[in-house]
Specification:
By secondary structure, the protein is an all-beta fold. The protein contains no helices and 12 strands.
């Protein structure tokens, strides 16, 4: 059974089909589907309730572009978006923490990022879209799983003990680059 919901992606109304949730995470199981999004059919967006104990979310997916040209704004590309919202629906943390984008024509690009959940966030919105002026954006194997929010990769310098909480470095430490190939 599909549930159709109107969703706004960059001020464009989109119909969204929500299948069953994948066993390995929070996003729906696309069942091997590789959706192709054009500027006329810009994408899918998911709103997911967060649990208080989730300090981080790990996003994995693959994306590729075919002839995507940047639109009028710099962010008008094929992209994966992620935003965090409080109980009133207002954005918390950075407006758009580290986003993944594709332009031109590319091979499949693996995305693997861990995002720290900002204090006060109760919902995360994740979008897979083509906001470019032309072309096709494709996405496959999306996965979003809760994590403890610990930095798992070596760092060049030791972070202050309060940087992962409400300390002075909190606004700057919202997305942790895990890997990208």
């Amino acid at each position: 059974m599909k549930i159709e919901l109107p969703i706004m992606i960059a001020a464009v109304a989109v119909a969204l089909a929500l299948p069953a949730v994948a066993a390995d995470g929070l996003l729906p199981d696309w069942g091997g589907d590789v959706p192709k999004f054009t500027p006329a059919t810009p994408g899918r967006q998911y709103a997911i309730d967060l649990k208080p104990e989730w300090r981080g979310l790990r996003l994995r997916a693959e994306m590729r572009a075919t002839d995507i040209r940047r639109g009028k704004e710099g962010w008008n590309t094929g992209r994966i978006t992620i935003t965090f919202h409080d109980a009133a629906g207002k954005l918390v943390g950075r407006r758009y923490p580290l986003q993944q984008e594709v332009l031109g024509t590319t091979d499949w690009k693996k995305v693997d990022h861990e995002y720290l959940v900002p204090r006060g966030a109760v919902k995360v919105h994740v979008g897979f879209c083509n906001l470019g002026a032309s072309g096709i954006a494709e996405f496959r194997a999306p996965s979003l799983v809760p994590t403890r929010g610990w930095i798992t990769q070596p760092c060049d310098a030791k972070a202050p003990p309060d940087c992962l909480d409400d300390g002075p470095f909190a606004p700057a430490v919202e997305a942790i680059h895990v890997s990208q190939t």
